[in-house]
Specification:
CATH topology of the largest domain in chain A: D-Maltodextrin-Binding Protein, domain 2
Structural class of chain B: alpha/beta
Strand order of the largest sheet of chain A: 2-1-3-5-4
Radius of gyration of chain B: 20 Å
Number of helices of chain B: 18
Number of domains of chain A: 2
CATH superfamily of one domain in chain B: Periplasmic binding protein-like II
Strand order of the largest sheet of chain B: 2-1-3-10-4-13
Shape of chain B: globular
Shape of chain A: elongated
Largest sheet of chain B: 6 strands, mixed
Largest interface: A-B, 30 and 32 residues
Helix content of chain B: 40-55%
Number of strands of chain A: 5
Distance between the termini of chain A: 67 Å
Distance between the termini of chain B: 60 Å
Oligomer: heterodimer
CATH topology of one domain in chain B: D-Maltodextrin-Binding Protein, domain 2
Chain lengths: ~190, ~400
């Protein structure tokens, strides 16, 4: 492990970048910089002069990084992609996770293997987090709709909160639908009758 | 007929039309193919996902298919291209400021690329003398026709693309804002981005790429060679579906329907009207609304665009050598030409009796139709390289 490595993260998702950055710091890499946006991307990368560049695969700027392979005036040092032919499992794992790594030519593969593994696990963790967040968010939305439907039923049919909920649940069971769906129908109908 | 499932990657561009329409109009289903289309954001992603087998096939830049097969810039994965998805279709757009400078420096008809290239050379000289920053021009990928078209154009007048100007890779969706903000002075990109810049008043179309090269392979259907060898039946069905789709697209009677299909957000996602103009080869070139028409602007199926031509592969490889991306060798030339597979195309369409798309253009003696220089000889690319090496000095 080489703590002095300069690592650049190109990721427009601040949360995912933070998760990755934190992981790298925990592993002892202190020189980690995140850059975002597209303006003069290569120039900014060259200014940092990184040893490793990590980019998410949803980022169209990945094609910009490919230019670093080309020998031209603005390129200070040639850069090669870490994953090589001998390591197709690594390519697969990183593409599945949605991240790609580029290293400056000459850096030994073993030295960087741990970084890529860390990237893959953090990117996967982020995906899990995102789907959990999505579930929580939709559960919250559902509860809001059910509460509104209960309120409408309580007022219209003069029911207690518990009775209103029982009515929703029974209807859902009879119609083989989710309670939230029935509640949404009640809310929509109430809007129409306004 | 057993149903074959295929995962095919694409970038939302007008020249993915044959692939998208093959799925949406049922040409693929008619061949017993169940195609899942996967939209991507970068050529690097398309290349990698094809290489590692996440895609069975892909809409790919023709030069990337060759670079992949030769192991240039990335890992070496042999690619077979049995179908040409698009020929031509790019344009060079410049800022109104640079356009005015080129007009002022021009000594002839600015529709002539040699006149504009010479004018560009004068603008470059003037800037050098004034100590100004060199012009910056955007293109889409190091191994792209856009890169080679820009280079071929300016170098014809002695402008060195590596020394006199800066060529930078920009993802197409960022081109227009980069031109507006002055990050670049111009770019070479495919549809619809040139029209976008013109409509927003931040750019003027200087040339269609078809004015620079009459016939340049732009995008191909790319397959991993071993996969193509192992699945000849699926390849033939896919080629036939694309052939029917390309013929459908090129029929003017279907243009409105095709444009509407491509305009869908999960396809190309651009206004149908812009797509229709692109397919017709009628583009607004200046903010005042003036248009330019060229039937060759984008060829999908027409003029033999569907049948892969190894001469095109040889020309692209010659550019890679010319610009220092690849070493020169007879083996590499042969390997580059072998990427384009007219044999697979012929085998597929012959089993049907005839191909639906039109045959090759006989008007072009060398199959390329460059605006400058001697005729291109795919058997002897050293002549091409020698001529242009002398010109540059």
């Amino acid at each position: 492990m080489d703590a002095s490595l300069n690592i650049v993260i190109v990721d427009d998702s601040p949360v995912r970048a933070a998760i990755l950055q934190e992981g790298l710091r925990e592993a002892g890499y202190v020189n980690v910089v995140r850059i975002e946006g597209t303006t003069k991307l290569l120039a900014r990368i060259y200014a940092i002069d990184p040893d490793v560049i990590l980019i998410d695969l949803e980022n169209p700027s990945r094609d910009v990084l490919e230019q670093m392979f080309q020998v031209s005036r603005i390129v200070k040092r040639p850069v090669a992609m870490f994953v090589d032919q001998a390591d197709s499992a690594s390519i697969q794992a990183s593409v599945d996770a949605g991240v790609s790594a580029y290293i400056v030519n000459g850096l030994k593969k073993e030295r960087i293997k741990s970084i890529l593994d860390l990237c893959i696990s953090r990117f996967n963790a982020f995906s899990r987090l995102q789907s959990e967040l999505e579930q929580t968010r939709s559960a919250l939305e559902e509860r809001k709709v059910i509460d509104r439907a209960k309120g409408i039923l309580m007022k219209a049919k003069n029911l207690s909160e518990e009775q209103a909920y029982t009515l929703l649940r029974k209807t859902a069971m009879n119609e083989n639908r989710k309670i939230a769906e029935v509640a949404q129908s009640v809310v929509t109908a109430a809007e129409l009758f306004k | 007929m057993t149903e074959t499932r295929l995962r095919i990657g694409f970038i939302p561009l007008c020249d993915a039309a044959a692939l998208l329409v093959a799925v949406d109009k049922g040409f693929a289903a008619a061949e017993g193919l169940d195609i899942e289309l996967l939209r991507e954001v970068s050529w690097s992603n398309v290349r990698d996902k094809l290489n590692i087998g996440l895609f069975d096939a892909a809409h790919l830049l023709a030069p990337v298919a060759i670079a992949s097969s030769l192991g240039l810039g990335h890992i070496k994965v042999p690619i077979a291209a049995p179908f040409g998805l698009g020929v031509n279709g790019n344009a060079i757009t410049v800022s109104p400021g640079l356009h005015a400078e080129i007009i002022e420096a021009a000594d002839g008809n600015v529709l002539d690329p040699l006149v504009t290239a010479r004018a560009l050379a004068r603008v470059v000289e003037k800037r050098k003398r004034a100590g100004a920053e060199p012009l910056t021009l955007g293109m889409t990928f190091p191994f792209s026709t856009h890169n080679y078209q820009l280079r071929f154009w300016m170098a014809a007048a002695g402008v060195d693309p590596d020394d006199d100007v800066r060529l930078v890779v920009l993802p197409p969706p960022y081109m227009v804002e980069s031109l507006a903000s002055g990050q670049v002075d111009g770019f070479c990109v495919g549809a619809p981005w040139n029209s976008d810049a013109v409509d927003l008043g931040v750019g003027r179309i200087l040339h269609f790429s078809s004015e620079i090269l009459a016939h340049a392979a732009e995008k191909v259907l790319a397959l991993r060679s071993p996969w193509a060898d192992e699945n000849p039946d699926a390849v033939a069905r896919l080629v036939r579906a694309l052939d029917c789709s390309a013929a459908f697209i090129e029929d003017p009677a279907n243009r409105g329907e095709v444009a509407a299909l491509l305009a869908a957000p999960h396809r190309v996602g651009v206004a149908a009207e812009v797509i229709e103009r692109t397919l017709e080869g009628r583009l607004k070139v200046a903010p005042d609304g003036s248009t330019r028409t060229d039937r060759r602007y984008l060829l999908i199926g027409h003029n033999g665009a569907a049948r892969p031509d190894p001469v095109q592969a040889a020309w692209l490889y010659a550019q890679m050598v010319r610009w220092g991306q690849a070493p020169l060798s007879a083996e590499l030339l042969a390997a580059a030409k072998a990427v384009f597979r007219p044999d697979l195309f012929d085998a597929a369409v012959q089993s049907k009796g005839t191909n639906a798309t039109a045959p090759a253009d006989t008007a072009l003696a060398d199959g390329i139709g460059g605006f400058a220089g001697p005729a291109f000889d795919a058997e002897d690319i050293t002549a091409h390289l020698k001529f242009w090496a002398m010109k540059q000095r």
